[in-house]
Design brief:
alpha/beta
């Protein structure tokens, strides 16, 4: 990770105690914040971070995930505020943001709430939640939770379901996902927060550089990737041809390269 060993730690913020993994604190370069999807943890970006040099890297367990305390309010807004509070505690005035799925919406909200603190925005498989999308998601079946069964078959069912969304056999990726699912009493709480968000209310608030990263084999996100592009007239797009629901883990080299190329081409560092 940035040529230095990752440093896990707990940080007490105004939004509660958060677990965060950092590297490169002594690097004289910009800060890069990586925000995971639900119900994952910082571990989702472990491989990507190891391929990126020259940054101070900050990867939090978002509130209610991994080893971070659950927030009183289960909303995208509260999560974004918590990450800004974390950056305040770490004395990071501004940063490049990268968010995947749920983490992308958190980054979207951070950019709308505090645009002066966001150097650039990379939104990977990030949904645009407008009235039509909120209605489509209303009453949708749980995506991550499967009721426990005495014979343990729910674990096999969860394994098979996740495999449907991956481009290739990836036992290690599936195992890491299932570990995080099993650590939650409600692994779909993040889905509820996403479904209640109002992306349209934040249009036009962030004028800075944006990269919309789409994963061609992400069955949940790719069919609607044009909507997030339309939200940012200044945005560039990069399509990960082999990308899927877990692109930071299944194609980390291409994911990291897309970030670095974007920064090299359009971001003033």
């Amino acid at each position: 990770m940035s040529g230095a060993a990752p440093e896990p730690m707990y940080v007490q913020t105004r939004s509660g105690r958060m677990h965060v993994v950092t590297s490169g604190a002594d690097i004289d370069g910009p800060c890069l914040v990586l925000l995971h999807q639900t119900p994952r943890s910082w571990d989702e970006f472990r491989d990507v971070a190891g391929l990126i040099d020259g940054y101070r890297i900050v990867i939090p367990d978002l509130p209610g995930y991994g080893a971070s305390e659950a927030p009183a309010e289960n909303t995208i807004e509260a999560t974004a505020t918590a990450v800004l509070d974390l950056l305040d505690t770490l004395r990071v005035p501004c940063a490049h943001l990268v968010g995947h799925h749920f983490g992308g919406l958190v980054a979207y909200q951070m950019a709308a709430e505090a645009p002066d603190r966001v150097l650039s925005l990379v939104l990977s498989s990030t949904p645009f939640i407008d009235a039509e999308e909120r209605e489509r998601r209303r009453g949708a079946a749980p995506f991550n939770a499967i009721p426990a069964r005495a014979d343990g078959d729910h674990l096999a069912a969860l394994w098979r379901r996740r495999a449907e969304y991956l481009t290739q056999s990836a036992p290690d990726v599936q195992a890491r996902y299932i570990r995080d699912v099993l650590s939650h009493s409600d692994p779909d709480r993040g889905t509820a927060a996403v479904s209640a968000y109002r992306s349209e209310d934040r249009l036009g608030r962030y004028p800075g550089p944006v990269l919309c990263m789409a994963s061609a084999r992400d069955k949940r996100a790719f069919p609607r990737h044009g909507q997030i592009m339309a939200a940012f007239p200044q945005a560039r797009e990069h399509v990960l041809g082999d990308g899927d629901i877990s692109s930071p883990e299944t194609c980390p080299a291409e994911f990291a390269r897309a970030i670095l190329d974007f920064h090299a081409q359009v971001v003033l560092r």
